[in-house]
UniProtKB/TrEMBL annotation:
Gene3D superfamilies: Alpha-helical ferredoxin (1.10.1060.10). Keywords: 4Fe-4S, Electron transport, Iron, Iron-sulfur, Metal-binding, Repeat, Transport. Its EC number is 1.1.99.14. Component of a complex that catalyzes the oxidation of glycolate to glyoxylate. This is Glycolate oxidase iron-sulfur subunit. It comes from the Bacteria. It catalyses: (R)-lactate + A = pyruvate + AH2; glycolate + A = glyoxylate + AH2. It comes from Nitrosococcus wardiae. Its cofactor is [4Fe-4S] cluster. The keyword Repeat applies.
Amino acid sequence: MPYFKQDSCLPPKTPKIAFLEQGSDRCVMCGLCLPHCPTYRLTGDESESPRGRIALMGALAKDQLTPTPRLLGHLDRCLTCRACEAVCPSLVPYGRLIDTARAQVWGERSRWQRLKKHFLYQWIMPRPAILQGLGRLVRLAQLTGVVGLARRSGLLRALGWASLESLVPKLPPQRSWQSFYPAQGEERGEVALFTGCVANIVEQPLLMATVQLLNWLGYGVHIPKKQVCCGALARHEGQPKQALALAFQNVKAFAKVEAVICTASGCTANLIDYPQWAQEEGVEVAAIRTFTSKIREVNQFLLHTAWPAEGTLKPLDKRVVVQEPCSLRYVLQQHKAVYALLRRIPKADILPLPDNEQCCGAAGNYMLTQPIFAQSLRAEKIDTLQKIQPDILVTSNIGCSLHLAAGIREAGFPIEVLHPVQLLVRQLDF
């Protein structure tokens, strides 16, 4: 039994250790979560299931197991899709448990891993200008053929960058945002747009379409320049303090606005969780709760906003398949808003992607850190798309969009991948 502990290497019991013990003890080991877990479906390995991981986390918290590389691998391969939470009769807070466990074993990572992550979350993510600069460099490399040459020569694979390069679409020109975009016609109010980190590089056309639609609906749109990454990547990799630091930057950046519109469901799910992050770190700040109350997922906001009478959606005689991101389906539970919006388009055949209850494998940066599992899960979606042959695939999360679009390009399918907002704007007669 390679996991059994011989020497104590976990710190004395803390509130987080106590939470791991209590949270894992809530699991009654019924196994209802097993068929809903992507990694268990792929492997049939109990340690790759929520039930198995909960047992491992509980044993770590009770100082019964050593955090060996093999055990850490089981924790790392969880996608945090949280499908298990939706079927758990004991309401085990699995998402919080896995994030807490990863933070507790952070010191067991290699020095190189810790250095890379520290640099990323301490120096890159809090500085949007650096991210934008990197985006411009990548676009230049794409335009000049450097990326293609590096791919054909095998250099990208040798450097371990092949998976990353395959996910990056042809980048648009990097826009410098105005601080405010005024409403068209009579103003109904003002909102702010959360641009995110990676989205602000690869999804600027979506962000601009969102601004245009909100302006047309009568909303002035603020884009605070000091906003940063939502913090999800840092938190899910066991860096809660860095995640909370990013949260505080966003709270400050959006302090003067009444509503914050988010186009990525993954970011939305984490932004509304800021009070929990603060509580876990022993911080209680009223401004965080105020900020969270302002968060609006864009599809939900559009669904409950009155549209101008003169706004006519053009008919679309195409099959549109909707992929439901796990963050939208399981965490926010707002996936039905997408269908309600898109079914306003005349003649459009709006269908759910079969097996939407299963994760596509993107899961933040999981598609980079666990490419074998991520690509196996994506292959199931690609096979389904081949069978139903839609014209358009719609998704509301940036990770899912990048991951699935890469698979579609690789398969050579003529399927366009869009956000619901992009499709709505395309069909509107502005």
